[in-house]
Amino acid sequence: MNSSAIEYIANASRDNHSQMEVFTQLENNMQDLGLLQQRSTRGRRKRCNETPEETARRAEEKKIKNRVSAARSRAKTNEHINNLESKVEQLKRDNELLERKIKFQVEMIKEDEEKTKAEKTRETSNRLRRAFSSSF
């Protein structure tokens, strides 16, 4: 570090400046001396010591990683869709089976009601009836 920057830090700590003020002033001094590249107001800092080849290699690696990630995401989505479709098919089969069971149960109930009704009519027709021939 430059001696003027060190002197500024020492003086600032004695003068009770806030840390943010100290670091801002230090950064400005370093930029003035050419020790630090000026930051842009938006985005990330550029890599100072990178060659264009390294930058291109990083960009290519990023593209490859992104491609692999996208392929993994598509595969996961397709697997999820296939699982849902198989569940739908299984639920349709279960539904058909339950509908057949319900239909069978309804038929059995109707048959039982018809038998009960027939037995009632038979009982009423076979009962002895009192003749109303005499008056009391």
From TrEMBL:
Domain BZIP: 56-103
Keyword set includes GTP-binding: no
Location (main, coarse): nucleus
Top-level division of the source organism's lineage: Eukaryota
UniProtKB keywords: DNA-binding, Nucleus
Composition bias, Basic and acidic residues: 48-63, 112-126
Signal sequence coordinates: none
InterPro entries attached to this UniProt entry: bZIP (IPR004827), BZIP46-like (IPR043452), bZIP_sf (IPR046347)
Region (Disordered): 40-76, 112-136
UniProt GO BP: positive regulation of DNA-templated transcription
Compartments where located: Nucleus
Entry GO MF terms: DNA binding; DNA-binding transcription factor activity
Keyword Nucleus belongs to the record: yes
Gene3D superfamilies per the UniProt record, alphabetical: 1.20.5.170
GO CC terms: nucleus
UniProt protein name: BZIP domain-containing protein
